[in-house]
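pinned: reference chain
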Amino acid sequence: MLISAKLKPIALATSLVLTLAACSEDTTSTQGPNFGGGTTDPGNGGGTNFDEKALVANLVDNVITPTFTAFNQQATANHATLSQYCSVEKAAALGEASEEQRLDALTNAQTSWRDTTTLWQHAEVMQMGPLVENEGELRNLIYSWPAKSLCGVDQDTAYFEDGVINLDSNRPYDIKQRTATRRGLVSLEHLLFSEQLNHSCSIANDALADWNNRTDSERRIARCEFAVEVASDLVDNSQVLLDKWNGDTGYAMTLKNAGEVGSSFDSAHQAVNVISDALFYLTEEVKDKKLGIPLGYESNSCGLEACPQDVESPIAAQSLANIQANLAAFEKLFTGNGSVEGNTTGFDDFLVEEEGADTKDAMLTGLQESNQVIESINGSLQQALVSEKEKVEQTHAKVKDVTDQLKHDFINKLALELPKSSAGDND
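pinned: its structure tokens
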């Protein structure tokens, strides 16, 4: 759990401010006062003397770039681990490796997937530039959730093994041409964690016609071989992200050069707004989808009641760890506490400069309390929805404490604009 060292005890008066702010939230507002207004510093553009270029530079260099780099490195290591697992799976089929060795190699592969997914869940909260262009195409190739297709993954497992699509010799298999739901981390979760070896399709096509009659070993080998291919594709896409982010013409430099001659941003304030938009992942994805939908606060597979099968990661039971990673990434972006200890310029400092220390404290307290409730849950999110539903409801409420501040006082104090997806959100 990552909780900023800047967090200080909060007086009762501050709690009262938080309560009143949440109750009086003006959800019809789309931007803070003075958005894009005049300033004594033409590089800012938000009506403040706070050094917004320094804020952008620190978040880019010490928070976002290290996250994308670490994901690329872990994706590469993950590919190697899965390749090793598949080698052991094949050796076991030949009697050249024991069942214990096979299970140990599988466990290592699953652990590697968890490590890779956790790093990606940090990057999930940093969606901007290459991760949002073309309607999030690159992001979806890495992590397609909430879209998924277990049947599609099973079909592509058979297609990859055959080298052609659905036994058609005129359609050679190429993962780069396949849809996002058959690739990435969501696909790997099914391939590595599903204990059911039968295919997931209601109707088997030609390629899957004899799948359920094959031996367990044959099916595990087919799945692990496709998992290695998916992991290789994941490495490629993590590198595409880095290439689009880094370099003299990368998006990182575009953000840091905001307000300068030739920049696509008129001011540093606009670049700050791009980064602040990413913070709303906590509202739309964590609060509403990862918690609200399984709780039945919004329509789900069970109607409008608790629905364990609708959690984010039902096969690997990774849902709570994902949410904690999202909270940790949000805090890094908010506080600027990244790879360089000597530079922690963050939104919290901006809030203090704009007389929003109470908002800063309320948001950090909400993050801390969200984590505390999650850590008190025994087992997975699926289990908690059945046996400890009140704790899941508390987690939702604590995350909402943060997002209420984000949508109201945070935006208003810093004269920022709400992302279009959050404008008019009455929750």
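why pinned: Confidence is low (pLDDT under 50) at residues 1-29, 33-43. Residues 52-93 form the longest helix (42 residues).
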